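dude i think i finally got it to work??
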Amino acid sequence: MQYTLVRIDFYSGEKCDVCPRPLTSGKARVLVDEAGNELFVGPVCAQKKAINSKDKVPDLTMAALDPEAVSAGGGSTGKTGSSNGPPASHIDIDDRLKAESYLLLRTEKLVNYSGMSYGKLAGLYRSYLTNGLSDDGVKYLSNLMAKVKSDRPEYSYKNLQAIYACDFWILADLPTRQRTQ
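look at this
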């Protein structure tokens, strides 16, 4: 079975979905098979199992590392190409990864927060899932990120990353805190 590396994301599971190694960092590489099933794995298993293990992919955990240093949400170094579709024709890979990360944050990861997704974003997300993000989609998202940075900073890329990181760690810690009370 072939797996594709699609993103780096937070993970509260105890072990890799491929091997018995523990995943203690709180993040994992997400692999997807042909049927769309996701596996959460460590970096070694991702390198062994993913057909695109050298590609840069969106890293949704970047805010947890250093929110001031986040520029593109990129993952490991390697050849430039989209994580979910054809390689970018003339769009910078960092711009593409940042746009993909922003889209995932607003339409998937933080969708339960008020105002995150709307018609145009939902349409881009559906297209992203089936065909990848087009150059026009990257341009639209880049323009949206620039606009919200000044007009609606609560929807800025940096803030969404911070909210996602806080949301994950609060929810991941919730069972522990409930047991101690």
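Helices lie at 43-49, 62-65, 93-109, 119-131, 135-151, 157-180.
im so relieved honestly
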